[in-house]
Amino acid sequence: MSLRTRTVSRLFAVLLLATLCSPSPHAQTPATATTLRNATALRDTFISQVHAAGFTCTIAPPIIVVEDVPSFGQYDDSTNTLRTSDWTLLNPREKAFFIQLAGPGSTEDAAHAVFEKAAHQWIFVHELGHWWQACRNLTTTSSQPWQVESGANRISLAYWRKNDPSVPTLMFSLFHAVLDHAPSPVPAGQAVDTYFNTNYQTLGPSPAYPWFQSKMTVMLGDEKPEPTFAAVLASTKN
Ligand SMILES: [Zn+2]
To answer: Is 56 among the domain residues?
Structure first.
């Protein structure tokens, strides 16, 4: 083996080792690092408001991971991990979805702004709602899917009404647009919550899922009097 061949082989071995040891696929970019910082700050503000409302939780604040997550947010109570996405991680189909939500002829900047409110505010706090449900022993094993999903939306709605009403204003316009443009997937004569609970396993990954999220949130929007954040936290129980 010549010196040059040995050097090349050693370099190759070092590169291979570096690849095996690298922290990918979660390597940070400036954009994902900013998202992680902002998401951590929002998580901490949410939890400080839980404490201010007089509540505590024995579960640690969730670990935040920034990666492409198909539903733009997900809380896993088995690992206490909250996954959130970033605009730079979206695939073309996902970006096209937000361009469509932003309205006909929208720029990428307008679509990005909708994504920030929907994913990093509304959905992110919905996922923190699932963390709070875990704190209160309310999970999909102890409760029906409608109660769990509607409960997380109720927490997000109460939090944003208190902290930034422009978030629910935007989300309600999106939810109403979904309901106006997509037919109800619920067979005539069946209750929406019962149908959701019975068919949850197949609805989750289906195109009908946004319709159910829209329907349950619009129903929550009609709740009178509007429940406070503290009242919603208190009523989250198994
Ligand atoms: Zn959820």
So the answer is: yes
Tell me, yes or no, whether 169 lies in a domain: yes
Q: Is 121 a domain residue?
A: yes
Q: Is 68 left (phi over 0), alpha (psi -120 to 50) or beta?
A: beta
Q: Please name the helix (run of DSSP H) or strand (run of DSSP E) that holds residue 84, with its range, or none.
A: strand 81-84
The pLDDT of residue 238 is above 60: yes
| CA dist list (Å): 69 to 15, 139, 166 | 29, 21, 25
Cα of 146 from ligand 1 centre, angstroms: 10
Distance 152 CA to ligand 1 centre (A): 6
Dist. CA 105 → ligand 1 center (Å): 30
Answer whether 162's CB lies under 8 Å from 154's CB.
no
Q: How far is the CA of 76 from the centre of ligand 1 (A)?
A: 10
Contact between 169 and 122 (Cβ < 8 Å): no
Say if 14 falls within a structural domain: no
Buried b (16+ CB within 10 A) or exposed e, 195-213: bbbebbeebeeeebbbbbb
In this prediction, residue 26 carries a pLDDT of 62
Number of domain units in the chain:
1
Q: Is the pLDDT of residue 75 over 80?
A: yes
Range of the domain at 142: 32-235
